[in-house]
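Section 3.1: Structural characterization of target chains.
Under the original work plan, the team committed to producing a structural model for every single-chain target entering the pipeline before any wet-lab resources were allocated. The record below documents one such target. The sequence was received from the expression subgroup and is listed exactly as submitted; it comprises 107 residues.
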Amino acid sequence: FIQYHYYIQFFSLESLHGPALPAYLKLLLGSKFKVVYINAPKELRVFRASQELGCSNKDAREVVMHKDNLKRSRGAMRVRRIADIVLDNSTMSLVSSCKRLANRLGL
């Protein structure tokens, strides 16, 4: 994809639960590739899930716990350790989070 779309300056790969692909891409692409680990407190993720899914906090908590267990089993914490940037996503403003990320990336 990247080879045939050489004119694209930025792209993102999301939900990298395991460390193998981001570690390989860091080796392959060097400084052109940045791993960004996005972090938010569990209670906030539960609230967001309940809003997004239109369900109770109890049901949302189960969904979040299931996702967390799956991510942990695949090595998400190792992705965090190799991340170039760990972004705190605990604000309610998507615009604010995007601006902070752009600043951290030097965009």
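The longest helix spans residues 57-74.
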